[in-house]
């Protein structure tokens, strides 16, 4: 104790307080814990399972004890129509790949509520780092879903709306001017501030920059539960926690990391429980309930800005489609299982039932947001995109690393 007190004046202020408190209370540095005389191994399987927040059930009814956030009629119907638009566009481009008209595609079947429920709670100034399952973010919703933003990269047609063109992978569009960062396939590369040798201005690093600049916005990082098995996930959580970065980690747990089910990926209570180990507040939400996703995201954003701390949200869902057009998911899961989830837990059907129960449905029809009109619009845009002149392949092969960040 004498030695600790003797060196304390020469240490930084925060270390000085820690040393003096440790010397006086005999607690180990950085911790405060009770001492016990018995050998007891704590097993997480005996802990309570983290509950899943839900507002509306599978029938579209508000659950007993739940509070309807009472979103505006315009916002509810817009979210619903955009969910239909995304699913329609996925169907069109998936079929186009099977016909050999485009090279590759990844769908979001069964996970539409995650994209739009969370996107509707963000602000235009927030920086979004999305993965391939989130083709739509709050920035895109500001001007609705522009089909050509997603269709054009898949067909390699010339559409110079950002300087990354045409060096982006199919489904990896970007809207940099609207704070929508380019999508990635490299797992968790958007989570930390450093990936390999490439210093990138990405999620945790961007959030730390917002904090230093005292900006009133957050960084939002989307990724799947499979990406949470990467080491960069843990590094990013540790950086965000220790630096108190204003960032929202949004984990999409859809049950599969390509062909690996969650029961083979990890033990323990999902991904949300890992955030607690880093001192990050966590929440689990029903990813097929757009109201619950919206409410959790809205409150998380408020908490992040008020408390200057990161938050981790785990959205539970089910991947109804294949991982990509290069995958056949029927080889590792039963067709009956997929059919069951489509019939009972589809987020679009649940949203429609809610709108019917809340008497918003007739207003939606009057606004011409029905499926056929949306499908016709997407087909017209897709046909127009495929008829445009194709990008010279030399532009893709030459200088693939040249972009906005390295020019």
From TrEMBL:
Its EC number is 1.2.4.4. Signal peptide: none annotated. Residues 83-372 form the Dehydrogenase E1 component domain. The keyword Nucleotidyltransferase does not apply. It comes from the Eukaryota. Its cofactor is thiamine diphosphate. Keywords: Oxidoreductase, Thiamine pyrophosphate. Pfam families: E1_dh (PF00676). It catalyses: N(6)-[(R)-lipoyl]-L-lysyl-[protein] + 3-methyl-2-oxobutanoate + H(+) = N(6)-[(R)-S(8)-2-methylpropanoyldihydrolipoyl]-L-lysyl-[protein] + CO2. GO terms for molecular function: branched-chain 2-oxo acid dehydrogenase activity. SUPFAM superfamilies: Thiamin diphosphate-binding fold (THDP-binding). GO terms for biological process: branched-chain amino acid catabolic process. CDD domains: TPP_E1_PDC_ADC_BCADC (cd02000). The keyword Lipid biosynthesis does not apply. Belongs to the BCKDHA family. The branched-chain alpha-keto dehydrogenase complex catalyzes the overall conversion of alpha-keto acids to acyl-CoA and CO(2). It contains multiple copies of three enzymatic components: branched-chain alpha-keto acid decarboxylase (E1), lipoamide acyltransferase (E2) and lipoamide dehydrogenase (E3). This is 2-oxoisovalerate dehydrogenase subunit alpha. It comes from Hyaloperonospora arabidopsidis (strain Emoy2) (Downy mildew agent).
